[in-house]
Amino acid sequence: MSEEDVEDHILQLWDQLHSSTTTSMSEEESNQLFQRIVNSSLVQQDIEPAKQSTMGWFKRIGAVAAVAALILGTCTFLFLRRSVSTTDYAALPLDTAIIPGSKKAHVILEDGKSISLVGLESRDTIHTGSYLILNKGQEGISYHGKDGLANRNREVYNTLVTPLGGEYMVVLADGTKVWLNANSRLRYPTDFVTDVRTVELEGEAYFDVASLESGGKKVPFYVKTRTQTVEVLGTQFNINSYGGQITTTLVEGKVALRYKGVSKPCLLSPNYQLIYTEHTHTYEKKEIDPYYFTAWKDGSFAFDNTPLTAVMADISRWYNVEFNYETDVSDVYFSGKISKLESFESLLQTIQWTGSVKFKINGRRVTIRK
């Protein structure tokens, strides 16, 4: 379909909508709505209907369908606002305003001292004994040994901690890059001095592991969680260990996953994911599109036929809010992409546009119902 055809379809959809459903809107309001639709990033995406619910409007079938879905969804929201209780979107007091998360964390040194990384200027340097922590602004922090002072006899550990509503990136001494998601902890050596590289993770992180050789042999890299150890040589992968499951998603390379009480390792190839359920000691391996499990590090929420409860769990950690379910939503799934910089109210509006669920905000608690 040509660009002219797309434009004609958009205008036809808008004319139909404007004549039939927006008579209560002023001309200025309707024009603003149209511009919002045309300028929306959703128009740039391909879309297809979800597999299990009306919430999954946003996936790939073409730009015109995207605009149609967005237009209809927008108006659905407008009329929902008029028909439901005003408490559904009551104005929030400034002292409880819910804002998106941001890059914030603190690092705990070996002696227990905690250093906040919030407000540091780019290129600021933290001097800590035999090594330096260099702040690289939006890129995060990196570790560098001081000439002649690096302790090669033992490993000194630091811990990077992100709060609810925070994320951060660290470049380890070997060049490995780690993006740490909200409400997570990463314990790591300030320098790797043995024939293995080991870090410990709680929460979620994306790893881009640098290849390292010693004595002509590749030095393995291990990521330990509560009940899982991932062994890699040089690769990119994501580990989500929130709750009672550990989900490992491989983007590049190969990894071997080992579990407590399981003698044989599980091998994972690119575009595959392994989900380990801790209380049953069982795992499921499946082929996936890694994008939907790694988009968080690049500033987006991305979902592909994802249960609403899982969607809300991600949103809860980023905006530091609590969700309560008034009705059963186990049959509600969502597909789409939403910027992590969206205001909290705008994000909920986007979801409510689908017509599957409604929200009621009370401070930092949000009630969800069909």
From TrEMBL:
<dbReference type="InterPro" id="IPR032508">
    <property type="entry name" value="FecR_C"/>
</dbReference>
<dbReference type="Pfam" id="PF16344">
    <property type="entry name" value="FecR_C"/>
</dbReference>
<protein>
    <recommendedName>
        <fullName>FecR protein domain-containing protein</fullName>
    </recommendedName>
</protein>
<feature type="domain" description="FecR protein">
    <location>
        <begin position="159"/>
        <end position="255"/>
    </location>
</feature>
<keyword id="KW-1133">Transmembrane helix</keyword>
<keyword id="KW-0472">Membrane</keyword>
<feature type="transmembrane region" description="Helical">
    <location>
        <begin position="61"/>
        <end position="80"/>
    </location>
</feature>
<dbReference type="InterPro" id="IPR006860">
    <property type="entry name" value="FecR"/>
</dbReference>
<dbReference type="GO" id="GO:0016989">
    <property type="term" value="F:sigma factor antagonist activity"/>
</dbReference>
<dbReference type="InterPro" id="IPR012373">
    <property type="entry name" value="Ferrdict_sens_TM"/>
</dbReference>
<keyword id="KW-0812">Transmembrane</keyword>
<dbReference type="Pfam" id="PF04773">
    <property type="entry name" value="FecR"/>
</dbReference>
<feature type="domain" description="Protein FecR C-terminal">
    <location>
        <begin position="301"/>
        <end position="368"/>
    </location>
</feature>
